[in-house]
Amino acid sequence: MHNLQIQDITTLFVVVDDCLPARTKGRGRPGALSDSETLTILLWCTLLLRQRNIIDIYRFACRYHRGEFPGLPNYANFVAHCHRLIPVMTRMLRESLALEAPLRFADSTMVEVCRLIRADSHRVVKGLAAFGKNWQGWHYGFKLHASVAPDGRFCGLRLTPANVHDAQALPFLVEGETKVVVGDTHYGASVMGRRMWEEKGVFIVAPPHPKQRKKILAGWQLLLLKARPKIESVFDYLKNHLGLVTSFPRSATGYLFHYLRVLLAYQLMVTLG
User: Fold this and answer.
1) What does the alpha-carbon distance between residue 251 and residue 140 come to, in Å, rounded to a whole number?
2) How crowded is residue 142: how many other Cβ atoms within 10 Å of its Cβ?
3) What residue numbers bound the domain in which 19 lies?
4) Is residue 255 part of a domain?
5) CB within 8 A of 96, min separation 6: which ones?
6) Res 21: pLDDT
7) What is the CA radius of gyration of the chain?
8) Closest residue by Cα to residue 35 from 24, 27, 45, 46
9) pLDDT tens track for 222-271
10) CATH code at 124?
11) Contacts for 13 with CB less than 8 Å, ≥ 6 apart
């Protein structure tokens, strides 16, 4: 799943250029780099080099890929161009979702923006981030809600403040041809189960709540629950290999750009791997 079948940056550029929507001419001078070139640099450094912040990506491109990208601008203009790509990256990520998958594994993970001890003085995403608690303790930042197909591709994504309950994001994770969703105890509430069945025809498979003494499960449901760590391995890869969790951005736009860069890189990797 994690072996990208692209061995050079030129091949990656061709893939990215084919995926980008046609761009209409705007006013003013054209950028030194095209959207395809900028996005190629970002994805290449994220997937193959695991660069964790935009300044390291820019320095690497200047040092080793000046020949492929002779129009590389100065750092400030490069960052500005990256931020202008947010709508394009959002559209690419949305169009790459595996909406046809009938079976999905759903879960959420905390995405901290800083250490808990610094939360009170953190101002970059004040008003957007929040305190949230899970089995590991308290966190300050956001929560990534996701559903994935059995092959690891994202089917649905939702980024919320850390205090949003998992079940509240579930309706956004089951769009498309979903028939069965496998989740943890947070998705097992009978009210949400009835709502998903009545509104979307989706059946939720979840383990019993710790306070429940008995819950009847069929054999196929037990097998699906045993496969639920699939999505946990996706979160582990996003955090420990692609650097999803960060405190480097200095604006809310910077945080959004970082998350989109990592999520889009992962989706491309799984789709082409």
Assistant:
1) 16
2) 26
3) 9-84
4) no
5) 19, 153, 154, 264, 267, 268, 271
6) 67
7) 20
8) 24
9) 899 999 999 999 999 999 999 999 999 999 999 999 999 999 999 999 98
10) 3.30.420
11) 36, 37, 40
